[in-house]
Amino acid sequence: MFCTNCGNKLNTGDSFCTECGSKVSSSKSTNSGKTVKIIVTRKKRAMGCAIPFPVYIDGEKIGQLTNGISLEKEVTVGSHAVEFVCADGNIRQDVELTESHESVEVLCTARMGLIAARVSILEVIYK
Ligand SMILES: [Zn+2]
Predict the structure, then answer these.
(1) What is the mean pLDDT of residues 96-125?
(2) Dihedral angle computed from the Cα positions of residues 103, 125, 28 and 7, in that order, rounded to the nearest 10 degrees
(3) Residues with Cβ within 5 Å of ion ligand 1?
(4) CA gap 56, 71 in Å, rounded
(5) What pTM value is reported for the model?
(6) Which tens digit of pLDDT belongs to each residue from 8-52?
(7) How many CB atoms lie within 10 A of CB 47?
(8) How much is the average pLDDT of 78-86?
(9) Residue 67 gets which letter from DSSP?
(10) How is the chain split into domains, by residue range?
(11) Does domain 35-126 have CATH number 2.60.40?
(12) Could you tell me if 49 and 110 are in contact, meaning their C-beta atoms sit under 8 angstroms apart?
C-alpha cells in the first residue's frame, strides 16, 4: 500500500502517511472513480406476462422493465441493491462490484401472478 498523495510506502494499519501526513484511506473506501454498469434484462417469454414492473437501484428508480428489454445504470464499484417491485412484494438482488468488473447483468423473468407480474431472478452474470 502506498500513499495516494506522495507515493510513500505505508505500513498496514497506518492512518497517516509518515512522509507527508496525508490521511490514509482504507482500501475499502478508496475510490478510483471507476464506474461499472448494472444491466437489468428481462427475458422475453412467448407465453409470459407482459406487465411492466419498476426496477430500482439503490432506491432510485431506473425505469419500467417490459418484456425483452434491458435497463442499465452506471454505478461506482462496491455493493448495490437491485430491486424489482411487483405485486408479490419486492425482490432484491445484491450485486458486489469490484475494479475488475466491467458490468453485471441481472437476468430476470416474470410470469403471471394472481394480480400482476411475479418476478424471479434467473441469473447474475459478472463480466
Ligand atoms: Zn504521503
Answers:
(1) 87
(2) -50
(3) 3, 5-6, 8, 17, 19-20, 22
(4) 10
(5) 0.69
(6) 998 888 888 989 998 887 654 455 678 999 999 998 876 656 788
(7) 6
(8) 92
(9) T
(10) 1-30, 35-126
(11) yes
(12) yes
Would you say residue 94 has pLDDT above 80?
yes
> Could you identify the residue written with the cell 430476470?
108
Cell of 8: 510513500
Phi, psi of 42 (to 5 degrees): -105, 120
**Residue 2 contacts residue 10 (beta carbons within 8 Å):** yes
- For residue 126, the number of C-alpha atoms closer than 13 Å in the C-beta half-sphere is 10
Distance from Cα 1 to the centre of ligand 1, integer Å: 11
User: How many angstroms is it from 99 CA to the middle of ligand 1?
Assistant: 23
Does the pLDDT at position 117 exceed 70? Answer: no
Q: Quick one: pLDDT at residue 76?
A: 93
Give the total residue count for the chain: 127
- Bridge partners (DSSP) of residue 81 are 94
Give pLDDT, residue 29.
47
Q: Tell me the C-alpha distance between 27 and 35, whole Å.
A: 17
Strand, coil or helix: what is 70?
strand
